[in-house]
Design brief:
Its main location: membrane. The chain is of the alpha/beta class and about 950 residues long. The protein is built from 38 helices and 17 strands. The N terminus and C terminus are likely disordered.
């Protein structure tokens, strides 16, 4: 086939019959190429339309083409979830009854042969022959769509009347069929665990009858008591509807009686269903005796189809019998057959952790819409990604800032009332302990670096002030502000420079903060945050991995410090216990206090009066280092175990989730109690108890003039520029990691608004002499993880679905308010051992690595190819390229790790900016970023070229 493009040049397309191909479909890339949007849309509109008509006939099978029009219709109402129940006709003494044999919400559950319990949910395994027989049943049986039915007897009469009118059923059998279909239904229900001995006796004497409930009056429109009490309703989503399958054999039929019914309105048909869910579909199959197994397999086939996402859509939208048959044919196109000699049908397949969504199946089935353009996810080639549309150059003054504010105003109320949830309590406790530990650590380091101009008290006050203001007014309140390593190094260098040159440190720092604030305002006004468009997976993973490793290494280093301060006496010998001693010696006999008996002084008194401790047991505290390690590693291990507890098989789902949410708090309380029980003097959390500056000769307000020459006020612009780059890159990289699409944030981001408030807080903290704050990656990730939401009602066997994050401002505000009032909580906080908090730090670092693809690719080095997980990027990228790309990341991370403790650490954001600015030089532009990131990363895509 030959068409002409917009330059009037011939373009050849070679179309072929894909039904002769192995996979029955053209690759999506081919479809995108054939329907690629040209800059000149008018000249190509006829080409696209003609290509569409040709390609649809050649690419799609007749069934898929029919489904394309059925499922392509606009429908405001989503298809309800179907609960399917299969009842089989059985003889109970002299009476016939319908007994529940299986049920489906997503996966199949069978009544075990003993009849007393349900099987575990499992994937339905169907015989191919049963699917073809089902197709024949739909093709030859009665199909009633949108039947006005209000009760089971009326529906049965309509079905029988239809069959009699069509000559498919003899009028003489009318009463017999009606009698069978209106028999009572017996449903499988669960009995309480605490059954009496009398119940057990009935179980042994009366079979399984006690474990089942009978619906004696099936024609009642109201649900029975057993239905209303059925706890299985918790597993069924709201607004679900029922599909009932009735199969059995009778002796008065010589050919099958088949009917498929869709009611116009879902109707509660009394005790037909085990749960009080209105019925929408009915499938009835009665046949001659001798083929019960075949009927049962056909019933399982239609039940499995009814819970299939695509077929259920077809069943709801079908207009005639042929639409249903097309749905079965498309299901057959996707069916995978297992050889009978290589698989035991009795083995039940466990439900997968992740199931392909209906949208992806539709995309693989047909990727063209009515205009011949790629559908939604199938396209991917045109337009900007969602984040790129949000962060763009608006072309007007503060345009991005105004858009951020406009985006956030509609969510203002929900940002507060959505925080009123029990999950928020656990998040507040977790992040609060992490923040105060971080504040104490950085406050102590700042005090050492700045001669106590900034110390622990300033760190607490600055954390409380900056965090509260940011969570109240920022664009992304899930971000947690904290001090960072590069800022600490900058403060140290600035203090040394001021000291060596006779410049007042606090006044110089104030002017640097003012200039940096103005520079941040300039970046906001010019929409400079648009640079995050060039942030790739390479940058995100490198930055978050570095911060995670810093948290892990610092936690371990601080723990090892306990072994240095309280060493383990490995040379202890019980036989020489008399040789161990520690004496207090006077510093100088001529200057010593003669009235003191130095040999009788305690350790504290000896040090107080200038004496020296001599002996091999002076620093030895029995069991203290080992106890600290138990508290450290125990807190980490218990937190990890309790976090995973929600995936265990013990206790109800809600209790497991509650334990998982409060895992960190429970671990901390457990080991605080253990520490108090044993009574060893382990190092404890030290919190300031007085509201006053750490350094006595400074106040809470820093004056801008009077101590430095005038030129310092202007020259401070230069170091402020470095601080601005530092703040900008740290803040925006952390924000990109928080706002990544995997977190499913629905309220949007606010990069410009975040940077605006960071700049305001820079100036405010400078005037108050408080540390500067920026987004803390690891603590922010921990904040998000503690607020993740999962579906409450999931089908049996189905993994809870991740719904997103509880986006609100309340948890952050409470965390920082508690941080500010911590000086009043000192009597309580002083009981928390520092090793316990080091364990929390270790958990935060390890947990933040779990969602990083870089860490997963590192583990591939130690796995043989046949044992490697089925990652999507391994399907598209050669393994050697994956290893090469990972090696480049490891080398870059190692370089940053070596430099992190030196003065060059403050250049890390500059290096990040330089790296991002080089992508256009390699020919990697925004249109290729998204595709490359979906595989593995932009640089790996470059290596493939």
């Amino acid at each position: 086939m030959c068409v002409r493009n917009y330059n009037n040049k011939p373009v050849k397309f070679f179309l072929f019959d894909i039904r002769k191909c192995d996979h029955h479909r053209l690759p999506l890339s081919t479809l995108r190429f054939l329907t690629h949007k040209s800059p000149n849309k008018e000249n190509l509109s006829r080409v696209n339309m003609s290509l569409t008509s040709v390609m649809i006939s050649d690419v799609l099978s007749p069934a898929a083409e029919r489904l394309r029009y059925i499922l392509g219709e606009e429908d405001d109402m989503p298809t309800p979830t179907l609960f399917t129940e299969m009842d089989t006709l059985q003889q109970d003494g002299d009476e016939l009854e319908w007994k529940e044999s299986a049920r489906w919400v997503k996966f199949e559950e069978k009544v075990e042969e003993g009849g007393e319990r349900w099987s575990k949910p499992h994937v339905s395994t169907l015989s191919l022959h049963s699917l073809f027989e089902l197709r024949t049943c739909i093709q030859t049986g009665t199909v009633l769509l949108d039947l006005e039915g209000y009760s089971l007897p009326q529906i049965v009469d309509e079905i029988i009347e239809q069959q009699v009118d069509e000559g498919m059923l003899s009028p003489d059998l009318r009463e017999k069929i009606s009698f069978v279909l209106l028999r009572k239904h017996r449903h499988q229900t669960k009995k309480p665990i605490h059954r009496s001995l009398a119940d057990m006796g009935k179980a042994s004497g009366g079979g399984a009858r006690h474990a089942q409930s009978r619906s004696m009056n099936d024609i009642s429109d109201t649900p029975s008591t057993d239905q209303l009490r059925n706890k299985f309703m918790k597993k069924i989503p709201r607004d679900a509807e029922a599909s009932n399958v009735l199969v059995g054999e009778v002796d008065f039929l010589d050919k099958p009686f088949v009917a498929f019914v869709r009611l116009a309105q879902a109707t509660t048909l009394g005790g037909l269903t085990e749960v009080p869910v209105p019925t929408r579909f009915l499938f009835i199959l009665l046949g001659p005796t001798g083929k019960a197994k075949s009927y049962n397999q056909i019933g399982r086939a239609i039940a499995t189809l009814m819970v299939d996402d695509l077929f259920s859509d077809v069943a709801y939208k079908a207009r005639d019998r042929e639409d249903l048959i097309a749905g079965i044919d498309e299901f057959l196109d996707e069916v995978i057959v297992l050889p009978p000699g290589e698989w035991d049908p009795k083995i039940r397949i466990e439900p997968p952790k992740k199931v392909t969504s209906a949208d992806k199946r539709l995309d693989s089935m047909f990727s063209l819409n009515e205009l011949g353009q790629p559908n939604g996810a199938a396209g991917g080639g045109g337009g900007l990604a969602e984040d790129e549309e949000i962060v763009c150059v608006c072309g007007r003054f503060c345009g991005g800032l105004f858009l951020d504010i406009k985006r956030k105003i509609p969510w203002l109320l929900s940002d507060f009332y959505e925080g009123f949830h029990i999950q928020s309590i656990s998040a507040v406790l977790f992040i609060y302990l992490g923040c105060i530990t971080n504040a104490i650590t950085f406050g102590g380091l700042l005090g050492d670096a700045t001669d106590n101009y900034q110390g622990v008290m300033e760190s607490f006050l600055g954390t409380a002030l900056s965090g509260t203001v940011f969570c109240l007014f920022s664009g992304q309140p899930l971000i947690i502000l904290s001090s960072t390593g590069p800022i600490l190094i900058f403060e140290k260098l600035l203090f040394e420079f001021s000291k060596n040159n006779g410049i007042d440190y606090m006044e110089l720092r104030l002017w640097i903060g003012i200039h940096s604030c103005l520079q941040c305002f300039l970046l906001v006004a010019t929409d400079a945050s648009y640079i995050i468009k060039y942030m790739t997976r390479f940058t995100e993973e490198g930055f978050s991995s570095l911060i995670s490793f810093i948290f892990i290494s610092d936690a371990i280093k601080k723990m090892m410090g306990s072994f240095k301060y309280y060493p383990i006496n490995t040379d202890f010998k019980p036989d020489y216990v008399t040789a161990y001693k520690c004496e207090c010696l006077a510093p100088d006999p001529s200057e010593s206090i003669l009235s003191l008996d130095w040999s009788q002084l305690s350790k504290k008194e000896c040090v107080k009066y200038g004496g020296s401790l001599v002996g091999n047991t002076c620093k030895y505290v029995p069991d203290l280092a080992l106890m600290s390690f138990i508290l450290f590693f125990g807190t980490y291990s218990m937190t990890v175990s309790l976090k995973k507890f929600k995936f265990s098989r013990y206790f109800p789902t809600k209790l497991r989730k509650l334990i998982s949410d409060f895992s960190i708090f429970m671990a901390i309380m457990t080991f605080v109690g253990l520490d108090r029980l044993i009574g060893l003097k382990t190092p404890k959390l030290i919190v300031p108890t007085e509201f006053k500056p750490t350094r006595p000769d400074r106040g809470w307000i820093v004056l801008p003039f009077g101590k430095n020459p005038w030129w310092v006020y202007l020259a401070s612009f230069v170091p402020a520029l470095l601080v601005t780059i530092l703040i900008f890159m740290d803040q925006q990289i952390s924000a990109v990691i928080v706002n990544r699409k995997e977190n499913k944030l629905r309220k949007g981001c606010g990069y410009h608004l975040d940077l605006f408030w960071v700049g305001v807080l820079m100036a405010a903290c400078s005037f108050l002499g408080l540390p500067w704050y920026v987004a803390a990656t690891v603590i922010s990730i921990a904040h998000i993880d503690s607020l993740k939401m999962e579906s409450e009602s999931s089908a049996p066997g189905e993994q809870p679905q991740f719904l997103g994050v509880r986006e609100q401002r309340l948890t952050g505000i409470l965390v920082f308010v508690l941080t500010g009032v911590s000086i009043f909580l000192a009597p309580i906080l002083q009981f928390i051992p520092m090793p316990v908090l080091y364990g929390v730090f270790l958990y935060m670092g390890v947990a933040s690595l779990s969602g990083i693809q870089f860490w997963e690719r590192i583990k591939l080095y130690m796995m043989p190819s046949k044992y490697q997980p089925d990652f999507p990027f391994l399907r598209h990228v050669p393994l050697r390229r994956v290893h090469l790309f990972t090696l480049v990341q490891i080398i870059c991370l190692a370089v940053l790790w070596v430099l992190k403790s030196t003065v060059l650490a403050i250049l890390f954001p500059v290096m990040m900016y330089y790296q991002q600015s080089q992508w256009p030089c390699f020919g990697i532009h925004s249109s290729t970023h998204q595709h490359a990131n979906d595989l593995i990363g932009s640089k790996c895509w470059l290596l493939m070229k």
